[in-house]
Design a protein that fits this description.
Elements: E1 3-7, E2 13-17, H1 22-31, E3 37-42, H2 48-59, E4 63-68, E5 71-76, E6 83-84, H3 86-89, H4 99-106, E7 108-112, H5 125-133, E8 137-141, E9 144-148, E10 157-159, H6 165-176, E11 181-185, H7 191-202, E12 206-208, E13 214-218, E14 227-229, H8 234-246, E15 250-254, H9 262-271, E16 275-277, E17 283-286, E18 297-298, H10 310-318, E19 323-327, H11 336-343, E20 347-351, E21 354-358, E22 364-365, E23 368-370, H12 374-384, E24 387-388, E25 390-394, H13 397-402, H14 406-412, E26 416-420
Parallel strand pairs: 2-15, 3-14, 6-7, 10-11, 18-19, 22-24, 23-25
Antiparallel strand pairs: 1-25, 1-26, 3-5, 4-5, 7-9, 8-9, 11-13, 12-13, 15-17, 16-17, 19-21, 20-21
Helix pairs in contact: 1-2, 1-7, 4-6, 5-6, 6-7, 8-10, 8-12, 10-12, 11-12
The structure holds uridine-diphosphate-N-acetylglucosamine (UD1).
């Protein structure tokens, strides 16, 4: 199992370009199931979760071929089996996104329930309700959701009681091939939902309102394969910006529009960082700072502060001047990194969904720590950049699920970081 060895003491300087977004690439890969033939996708990040998705698509009859390091073709044929097996779904919750496309295209699907997850229960009840809203009959048997519909799914109005990214993506894909109009209310507004909608539109779907809380879909009878370049990863962009900031360095993050991670930028500015961004180009620059102050954040759906940057922001606050109150409202168990940060000397008191971080301006001290989930791994790497000595982050496979060569990007900026077996 690989570890990451991070040495402190270097301010990061330079430019770095972010990769394609995992959370956009995954639903878009699943959306290819809606249209037989050859799809062409560019800017696809090379990650464990992408490999797991391709494995699942292969089990559903698709063939794929990498054309270059980040571009691939996927050729979709009618699958022999409409079952997404537990062995493949349990590796990655997002696999449940194959439900909508399979059901819409073939009128049935058998998809394993994803099971538990480190950051909380993460139920899929809203995905199921959404499919039922389009007329599907769904039963839960032996750990699987068995869904079917006589004929085509029927468009209708569906109100999500909680904003859900995956739930919105599942119904959006299903509604694209349903009969008549679907109105999705309280839809997730995340940029990744917009990227998915853009690919569906490229395939011939009729969608309006994506990026707002009401999405309208006029169902069509068939979709055709198309090509698309995956949007840049705003979570990786935010992670790299924090890496520059936490080391007191000067870093330019390229490729991702500031508007996709504005909530982070505003909080960093409030904390005392000078940050420039361009309205016309996807460039954000953080300037060197000697100190910054603790500020409070509350995670919430887009465009508010993303839960996927909460752990990384906590590392920044762990070495700020004063106190920061971090409130997690999206997932119920997303503070597992706290105890690891405490091992590095951070002063943090978590209670239920609130963590009080008392910044240590004198810095942190290196220690062996363990990654517990994807974003927690990134937060420990960031803390390692400023924890005096050599921090060893184990279980780095979590990081590999969602970051493409993070250590390489940090090395480019001057960080002393290396992977070791
Ligand atoms: C996606 C992202 C993940 C991010 C999260 C929130 C992908 C592949 N993953 O996850 O990185 O942290 O959005 O921005 O895009 N919920 C229910 N029932 C459901 C579905 C969700 O109660 O059927 C709840 C969840 O438990 C959670 C909240 O809704 O409390 C939001 O979850 P959701 O937006 O669905 O997250 P994911 O799509 O799983």
């Amino acid at each position: 199992m690989d570890k990451m060895i991070v040495k402190s003491g270097k301010q990061l300087f330079g430019e770095v370009t972010v990769s394609g977004a995992k959370n956009a690439a995954l639903p878009i890969l699943f959306s290819t199931l809606l249209a037989d033939g050859k799809h062409f996708l560019k800017n696809v990040p090379r990650l464990k979760d992408i490999d797991s998705t391709l494995e699942l698509l292969k089990s559903l009859g698709c063939e794929y071929e990498w054309i270059d390091s980040n571009s691939l073709t996927i050729t979709v044929h009618k699958p022999k089996s409409l079952e997404a097996h537990y062995d493949l779904v349990r590796k990655m919750r997002a696999s449940f996104l194959c439900l909508g496309p399979l059901l819409a295209k073939y009128g049935e699907a058998v998809v394993s329930l994803p099971g538990g997850c480190a950051i909380g229960a993460r139920p899929i009840n809203l995905h199921l309700d959404a499919m039922k809203g389009l007329g599907a009959e769904i039963t839960l048997e032996e750990g699987y959701a068995k869904a079917k519909i006589n004929g085509r799914l029927k468009g209708s109005t569906f109100l999500f009681e909680t904003s859900t990214v995956g739930g919105t993506e599942n119904i959006l894909m299903a509604a694209s091939l349903a009969e008549g109009e679907t109105i999705i209310e309280n839809a997730a507004k995340e940029p990744e939902v917009v990227d998915l909608a853009n690919y569906l539109i490229a395939m011939g779907a009729k969608i309006t309102g994506h990026g707002t809380s009401i999405i309208k879909v006029q169902g069509v009878e068939y979709l055709k394969p198309s090509e698309h370049s995956i949007m840049a990863d705003r979570i990786e962009a935010g992670t790299l910006l924090i890496a520059g900031a936490i080391t007191g360095g000067e870093v330019i993050v390229k490729g991702c529009s500031y508007s996709n991670y504005e909530s982070l930028i505003l909080k960093m500015q409030e904390s005392g960082f000078k940050i420039d961004f361009s309205h016309s180009e996807p460039i954000v620059k953080v300037y060197p700072a000697k100190s910054w102050k603790g500020v409070d954040i509350t995670t919430a759906p887009h465009p508010l502060f993303p839960t996927d940057l909460q752990a990384q922001f906590m590392s920044l606050m762990a070495v700020a001047e004063g106190t920061s109150v971090i409130t997690e409202t999206v997932f119920e168990n997303r503070f597992m990194h706290v105890q690891e940060l405490v091992r590095l000397g951070a002063d943090i008191t978590p209670k239920s969904r609130v963590a009080v971080v008392r910044g240590k301006v004198n810095g942190l001290t290196a220690a062996p720590v363990m990654a517990t989930d994807l974003r927690a791994s990134a937060c420990l790497v960031l803390a390692g950049l400023v924890a005096e000595g050599e921090t060893v982050v184990s279980r780095i496979y979590h990081l590999d699920r969602g970051y493409e060569n993070l250590e390489g990007k940090l090395q480019t900026l001057g960080a002393q970081i290396k992977r070791a077996p």
